[in-house]
Amino acid sequence: MSKDKQHSTLKVIIAGGGTGGHVFPAIAIATALKKKVIDARILFVGAKGRMEMQKVPEAGFHIIGLDIAGLQRRLTWKNFLLPWKVLKSIRGAKKIVRRFRPDVVIGVGGYASGPLLWAAKREQIPMLIQEQNSFPGLTNRLLGKKADKICVAYENMEKYFPKQKLYITGNPIREEVVSIEGKREEALDYFGLSGDGPVLLVTGGSLGARTLNESMAIHLDGFLEQGIRVIWQTGRLYFSEAQSIQQQLKNRQNVAVKQFINRMDYAYAAADLVVSRAGAIAVSELCVIRKPAILIPSPHVAEDHQTKNAMALVNHHAAVMIRDTDARSMLGEEVRALIFDQNKMHRLKERMAALSYRNAAGVIAGVVLSIVKTNYKVINEQ
Prior knowledge:
13 strands, seven-stranded parallel beta sheet
């Protein structure tokens, strides 16, 4: 907050993206800053061709794209271009920082985060890292030594970052997704589900998840026979096959098959139990809405982040985890053992609530402002 009558326009760069797990928290932080500071100018920097180049403008913010990509784990010619792309992106990041002259830079992870944070440190600009996962990626672990503050979502992160820089804030989540109070009946109608059995939501994210879909193909008929109603989000690639499976079922009216769910608030409101991958934001949303969950971590993410995210809940007895390789054989048994056990469901809800952070974006925005050295004018300043 400003100490005198001379105010400057607060200028912020938010760098990173690549997946919704980086992009949506970044947008949430930007929105929180706009609510706190009058006329704040916020510039996003992302990677060309990645989802942030679409989602950020849709949210009303300006973005510049760097020509940067990550190392491919399989042998491919694209890896030979990586050093050139890194050097090019660093030059581009330096130009952006010098032209925009930000008061603070926020890194949310993803390809573009590294070059921007490196350039910011070279220019002695205050820098904050927001780490979504319980096990940080290599870039954030390296840059954490240079950052002024580091906002994290999990305990015990001093293993990876300097303890004096850490703030446990939780992950920023989209408020419209977790606003589910009083929506259950409306949600059941939205998905066309009647009857009175418990509702199972299975979601592999916007792209779907092969293991979850193949597991559902095996166990779906059994769920329906036991009176479990199902919302099954398949993703694009499996949608047609899931529809064919549905048409062959005797109780097909008790399952809603969706390629993509536009109203996740309705999906969460309808669900009694959720089967999901263990992306950082999905886990944070589940904790806030207090929905018992069976987490099946993806084995295809860098450094096995999702297993570590899931274990952070499992170690607090706040969720059940099934390994990806065991899901096809174990999902049916685990769902039935949990969804009909109200005492166990209640215990999971209580423990998830203890791990939830509702206003993470606002708290992170406050930490950001604490390292800004210039004067700025806050909203509702007296």
